[in-house]
Amino acid sequence: MKIPLSRPDITKKERDEVLRVLKTPHLALGPKLAEFEEKFASYIGTKYALAVNSGTSGLHLVIRALGIGRGDEVITTPFSFIASANCILYEGAKPVFTDIDPQTLNIDPNKIEKAITKKTKAILAVDIFGRSVNWTPILKIAKKHNLKVIEDSCEALGAEYKGKKCGTFGQAAVFAFYPNKQITTGEGGMIVTDNKKIIDSCRSMFNQGRQVKNGKWLEHVQLGYNYRMSDVNAALGLAQIRRVKEILGKRAKVAKMYNQELAGIKGLEIFQVDPQSKISWFVYVIKLSQRYSQKDRELIIKNMIRKGIQCANYFKPIHLQPFYRKMFGYKRGNFPLAESVGSRTIALPFYGFLKKSQIKYIATNLKKELKKKVQGIPS
Ligand SMILES: *Cc1c(COP(=O)(O)O)cnc(C)c1O
User: Fold this and answer.
1) For the whole prediction, is pTM greater than 0.90?
2) Are 188 and 54 in contact (CB under 8 A)?
3) Alpha helices, DSSP H, located in the chain
4) Is residue 99's pLDDT more than 60?
5) What's the 317 CA to ligand 1 centre distance in angstroms?
6) Ligand 1 centre from 175 Cα, in Å?
C-alpha cells in the first residue's frame, strides 16, 4: 500500500470549469478572477478579496500595505511555515518570536506583551493546522498598544472562533491554495479585508503598481509586482470554493476516523481543541509523548515511509531554520515550547478521500512503531 501525505480533491466540476476558460481568450485578468474573489469574500464574510499567485505573495502585500518596513518589529509565532515570518523580512522589518501555547500550538497571548517595544508595529498570528488563534486577548493587546493585526489563515479555510470565520479578525488576512491546502488553485492565495485602503493598495501592487481604476496599462503609480492569479487558476479555485462545505466535511470525517483509531494509544498526546473554536482540518498531526526523543521521531517517520505511509515532521520551528539562526543568532532553547512540540510531531497522511482501511493500516503500523519504545516502560 502507498499512501501519500496529501492529495487535492479535484472532480469533473473543476476540470470543466478550467476547460471552459481555455476555450476563451481570457486567460488572465478575466471574469473568473473577479468571480472567484467575490465568491470567496462572501464565504469568509469580508467586504473585499484579492486573488494572488501564492499565500506568500499575499502576506508580502499585506505587510507593505500596512506600511511595515525597516526598523519595525512584528510579533509572530516560531511554530509555523517559514513564509509567515519571511514576509516580514521582505520589507526589512524584524520578526520577533514569542513562544506558543503547547495545547493549541498557536501563539500564546500571555507572552506577547513582554515582547512589545517602541518598534513593534503589528502582531502576525497564524491559525496553525486549521486551529484558530485565541483572538480575544490578542485583539485586546493590539488595541491597547495600537498595533496592527495580520491573520495568516493559510491553513485555516473554514475554521471558526466564537462563531466567526478565521480571516475576519485582523486588519487583513491571507489564505493559500497550494495543493496540500483545504482547497487548491495549483498555486495561489487570497487576501481578505474590510478595509478599502488596504485592498486598493494591494490591488495596485499585485498588478505592477498600476492604478486600480481608470489607469493606463503602461502607467505605474507605485512600486508593484506581478503577483496576479491567472484565470485558469481562478476557475479551478471557483469550482473548489463552490464545493468547500463538501470538501471540509469529508476532511472532518477522516479526522474523526483517525481520532477513533488512535484513541487511547500509549505514547501519544492528544491536542486540545479550544472549545471556543471550530477546527478546519488541514493536516492530521499527532504528538509523541515526552519519552520519545527527536531521534525516535525521525526513526518512526522513516519506518512508516518504508511501509508506504508518507509522513512529515511539521513543523521545525522557524527560529531553528539555518538562515534564521545565522541572521539572528537563534539557538535551541530560545522558544522551548515550540521546540518541544516541533521535535515530537508527526503529520500523517491526510485528505478527504482517505479510506477507513487505509487509516486502519496507518494506525496499526503507528502502534507497532510506538511499541518498540514503550515496551517495558510504564506510562
Ligand atoms: C501554506 C502557507 C503559507 C504560504 O502559502 P504559499 O501559497 O505556499 O505561498 C503561509 N503561511 C502558512 C502558515 C502556510 O501554511
Assistant:
1) yes
2) yes
3) 12-22, 31-44, 55-65, 83-90, 135-144, 196-205, 231-242, 244-262, 294-306, 322-328, 336-342, 356-374
4) yes
5) 15
6) 8
